[in-house]
């Protein structure tokens, strides 16, 4: 790794940026107005986190790259987000389950980052934790409402849990940048986050009358730049204007 500190911050910023784009696809398409607005606000929260993290990453890199440069002018293999966040919305069940799995990790992760030796990262974590706490409460409530709801809602939620489960392992499997950051006291110890994540997820799934999948095989690669086909479509839409008219501003 040429600059593990930079890559670590990209991982965090890319997670927030790509998930924000996915949630933004719901704007105007939510099942009811209140939830449409709720997801849009969560998308904006994540976008704000992405902006702070990518700005900090650019400063750490020291090559003059801004948050916009890092968002709009990197190719798919240069993004380091986990595969989970780029998975399609499919329907409300998939969106809630994907978000719940990520929110649980994000909550415990930001709590750990409050102790980061990177003072700027610790400040970002402190600022973001209130938003992330709300996100986790929102998605946990929907897990319970739909999992323990009608026969159809339960069926749809269980299918989403089963399909998205193989993407959860990457959240707590250290990449080289994760390991460097943990050793340096900058990042979190993902082995500790894994225990907390498993406990919270198991408790919510049980209360929602949903079965936790037994499979242990997990997808991986996003943190090192190997992605599903979905990321390319996300970036094509997100980056189109800047790539077509580079340097233009409103």
Low-confidence stretches: none
Q: What is the N-to-C succession of helices and strands?
A: HHHHHHHHH
Mean of pLDDT: 92
> What is the name of the CATH architecture?
Up-down Bundle
Features:
mainly alpha; Ferritin; 65% helix
Could you explain how this protein is built, in words?
- This protein is an all-alpha fold.
- It has a single domain, classed as Ferritin, core subunit, four-helix bundle (Ferritin), CATH 1.20.1260.10.
- 65% of the residues lie in helices and 0% in strands.
- The protein has 9 helices and no strands.
- It has helices at 4-24, 33-61, 67-72, 92-113, 119-147, 151-164, 176-183, 190-207, 229-244.
- The longest helix is centred in the first third of the chain and has 29 residues, at 33-61.
- The mean pLDDT is 92.
Briefly summarize what is shown:
The protein has helices spanning 4-24, 33-61, 67-72, 92-113, 119-147, 151-164, 176-183, 190-207, 229-244.
Summarize the topology:
Layout: H1 4-24, H2 33-61, H3 67-72, H4 92-113, H5 119-147, H6 151-164, H7 176-183, H8 190-207, H9 229-244
Helix pairs in contact: 1-2, 1-7, 2-5, 4-5, 4-6, 4-8
């Amino acid at each position: 790794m040429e600059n593990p500190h930079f890559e670590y911050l990209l991982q965090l910023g890319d997670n927030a940026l790509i998930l924000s784009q996915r949630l933004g696809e719901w704007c105007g398409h939510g099942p009811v107005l209140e939830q449409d607005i709720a997801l849009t606000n969560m998308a904006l929260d994540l976008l704000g986190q992405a902006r702070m993290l990518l700005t900090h990453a650019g400063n750490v890199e020291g090559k003059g790259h801004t948050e916009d440069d890092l968002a709009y002018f990197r190719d798919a293999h240069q993004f380091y987000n986990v595969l989970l966040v780029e998975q399609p919305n499919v329907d409300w069940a998939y969106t809630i389950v994907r978000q719940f799995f990520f929110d649980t990790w994000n909550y415990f992760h930001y709590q750990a980052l409050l102790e980061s030796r990177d003072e700027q990262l610790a400040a970002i974590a402190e600022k973001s934790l209130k938003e992330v706490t709300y996100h986790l409460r929102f998605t946990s409530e929907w897990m319970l409402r739909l999992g323990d709801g009608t026969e159809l809602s339960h069926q749809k939620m269980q299918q989403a849990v089963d399909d998205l489960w193989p993407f959860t392992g990457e959240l707590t499997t250290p990449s080289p940048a994760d390991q460097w950051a943990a050793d340096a006291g900058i990042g979190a110890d993902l082995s500790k986050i894994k225990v907390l994540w498993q406990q919270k997820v198991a408790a919510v799934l049980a209360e929602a009358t949903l079965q936790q999948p037994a499979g242990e095989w997990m997808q991986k690669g996003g943190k090192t730049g190997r992605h599903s086909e979905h990321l390319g479509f996300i970036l094509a839409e997100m980056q189109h204007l800047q790539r077509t008219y580079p340097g233009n501003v409103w």
